[in-house]
Write a structure and sequence with these properties.
alpha/beta; three-stranded antiparallel β-sheet; seven-stranded parallel β-sheet; binds 2-phosphoglycolic acid; 19% strand; 228 residues; Rossmann fold; 7 helices
């Protein structure tokens, strides 16, 4: 695991520049997170950056109406894809009548080539996507129950009441990704980032499982990295 620490003022520019370099010339199969952390990176991508790439949404909250601003699909469209369209965009349908069939469908699309690069955020409780503490590295794409901390995060995105379940791309698919980037900013993530980097690898901190992955980069700003 490589840890890159950058000043907060140049973090987004550095990460988006690196991403553009990776995307050229032929595009990638990307798994992209929503949430607040990647937004400044997405905002700096040029309009044609994803034209030859396939984008998979990392996760989705259940129980919110289609188009709700706190839905992950809505956030990714609003914060990125409406301005920077992807060659193809896949996302899970949490309104499908049979969610286990839907998980299999989405996982099949993912596994038909895997991810070249997964761009992820870090939950304050150590979650990766909606893979909450206790998730194991072999768990596939599935419906998950959300922790109170994650529900509070969804409330901050505008879901009130917040959802109590979601559909998560599994740690199995994430850990199969050829490369993983973990984006971490702000002092509120300093304690959990120190656990990810320095403490023992445990399923109680799912992001720490990235230490078992051969090609992971943590892109942290100095505030998030101050306890490392
Ligand atoms: P945030 O969420 O980027 O909004 O902090 C990250 C996460 O909870 O995975």
């Amino acid at each position: 695991m490589r840890v890159e620490v950058l000043p907060a003022g140049s973090w987004a520019e550095a990460v988006s520049g690196e991403l553009v370099d990776r995307l050229e010339p032929s595009g990638l199969r990307l798994c992209l997170a929503t949430g607040a952390t990647p937004v400044p990176v997405y905002e700096l991508l040029p309009r044609d950056a994803l034209a030859t790439s396939t984008v998979f949404l990392l996760d989705e909250f259940g129980g919110l109406p289609a188009g709700h601003r706190a839905r992950c699909e809505t956030m990714l469209r609003t914060n990125l894809l409406e301005r920077v369209p992807a060659g193809a965009f896949y996302f899970p349908d949490v309104d499908a009548p049979d969610l286990s069939v839907e998980c299999e469908r989405y996982q099949g699309l993912i596994n038909d080539g895997g991810f070249d690069l997964a761009v992820l955020g870090l939950g304050k409780n150590g979650h990766l996507g909606l893979n909450e503490p206790g998730s194991t590295p072999d768990q596939p794409t599935r419906v998950v129950r959300l922790t109170d901390e994650t529900r509070e995060g969804a409330r901050n995105y505008g879901a009130d009441p917040p959802p109590n379940w979601g559909l998560a791309v599994g740690l199995a698919e994430i850990l199969e990704s050829r490369e993983v980037w973990l984006l971490v900013t702000g002092s509120a993530k300093a304690t959990v980032l120190a656990r990810v980097v320095n403490d023992e690898v445990t399923v109680q901190v799912p992001a720490a499982l990235l230490r078992t992955h051969p090609n992971t980069v943590i892109w942290a700003d100095e505030e998030a990295a101050h306890s490392l």
